[in-house]
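Hi team,

Filling in the usual template for the complex we talked about on Friday. All components are listed, including any nucleic acid strands or ligand strings, so the model treats them as one assembly.

SUBMITTER: L.P.
PURPOSE: interface mapping
COMPONENTS: two
RESIDUES: 634
SEQUENCES:
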Amino acid sequence: MNIWKYLIKRILLMALVLFGVACIVFFIAHVIPADPVGAILGGNAPPEKIDKLRAQLGYDRPLIEQFFSFLKGAVVGDFGVSIKTNNPVMTDIGIYFPATIELALVAIIISIVLGVFLGILSAVHRNKMVDNFSRVFSILGVSMPVFWIGLILILIFYYKLDWLPGGGRINFFLDPPQRITGMYLFDSLFTGNWEVFRDALLHILLPAFVLGYNSTASIARITRSSMLEVLGQEYIRTAKAKGLKKRLVIYRHALRNALIPTITIIGLVFGGLLEGAVLTETVFSWPGLGRYITAGLLSLDYPAVMGGTIYIAFIYSLANLAVDFLYALLDPRMRT
Amino acid sequence: MTVANEKTALGFFEKNKPYIDDLKHTVFLFRKSKLTMVGFVLIVIFLLVAFLGPLFLPYDPIAQNFAVRLQPPSQEHLFGTDQFGRDIFSRVIQGSRMALWIIFLVSAISGLLGTTVGIIAGYFGGLIDDIIMRITDMFLAFPSLVLAMAFAAMMGPNFTNTIIAISLVNWTTYARLARAEAMKVKEQPYIEAIRSVGAGTGRILFLHVLPMCISPVIVQLTLRMGTIILTAAGLGFLGLGVQPPTPEWGAMVSDGRNFLVDQWWISTFPGFAIVFVVLGFNLLGDGIRDMLDPRLRR
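RESULT (copied from the run log):
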């Protein structure tokens, strides 16, 4: 199949899935709680106040009509106005999302570097100390709750050692950099504001490591096993027999082929990152989209929850699409 | 009589020799892998604690006693006490039963739902299959914790709804597995034979297709038990899961957040309990996966 045809087919499929996502979210927000307005105002609110809010939010209309106006809005990114912040939800997302994506980017960079490095080390020194250490490190990474590691690391690195800041994106007394992308690291870099860059970097290290730990573990495991497989192949023996340096054999010959499964897993862990971001942001008071949704859920801010959830599903699907597309580009067998 | 018995007994072992050898080999592999054994031991301890622990609690896990609030770990309070003077050791022990219930109920509900939906999709194929598969796609389009959070928050956070929410985000995995197996099974001649004898669809599905699809689902269920605990603990931590004062590990970690500096034990010990159990399930699951992988088996 032609690669462009494949892409178009996948985009259409994604549109269908997103329609379903909108249905699920609408169902969660409007059908499960019998009375969203009652849930917002509490049980003892005066009836006229309830009626007013109901009309204001459009909940007095028939459900099916609400659904269509919700869909119409969702298509153009209009999810209504957040009850709590009084901003359009899309504006809020524009404010909060860059923080999340910045965190996720740094986390994935840390986990790729650390994970691939540990994986290679493990495979080359199979069953030695290094291997055992890295396997224990990996298995702990997928076994420890993100929020708990976060708290423990804050306790150690902030309260006890005072090496790193304990939360937030930037020191309270510093002004955030001029807004270009919304990501403090890039913005301060572009404007040449080194003091802010350094501070923002220190702030992001701990949360990004915590968020990336789980992915580091998965990446290290996959790299280890695919590296072991490749190292056992004949062309590696040939390369060694030719008298090539060990380093050259490992990094030039073996690593290239071993990295293909790693690329797939990087796509897969992205979803895990978005999920972990919800918890990491809560622990580190990181003002991102995950915290926005959690706060919305706890205060029953329906438009914020619906908009934020759909947006996350959209980004998640987009990431999956990108991975599949990259894969199809690399491997023609996948284009079905 | 005795002779006949001996004969059948002998016959049984001879007939099933390959299977018994296979089983022996599995046990051998199991015992050879140290990490799998460690996982096994951790899970046995967890089960023992969850079943028997609550019978021997030193203190009532819910009763508040302000005379002893925020006590550090000591002889009387092994893991210290929290801001309400509750004994954390008792709460952690009691929490194990909560964790076990969550694992058991979520696995049962999502496994049953997923398998049923999956074999229906795989067996009938065509439009039904398409529709069901697109529905699983929609569920998979969310990061699972986000979807579980939304379900739990809107239904009202409590124990029952935690179970429902986690089950709702988990069933798709099993549905896909069961579907793939059902598609293989339905091509088999024996299904054709049963159908030609006049068996009804329900009978074929549940008596002849289902048993063939169940084993990969069960393996996957054991592999995902660690994840289930982590999701439940995450929900509890965010305040969207089991509600206090019920002892649930995630919520207990969250309880200690404000006391982290001087009363580190409140958050730390429930967290250790989570790590202990999830680590056990992960090690055991890894071992099981390796044992069932024919490439690694011999």
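MY TAKE: Chain A touches chain B through 46 residues (CB under 8 Å). The first helix of chain A runs from residue 3 to 31.

Thanks, L.
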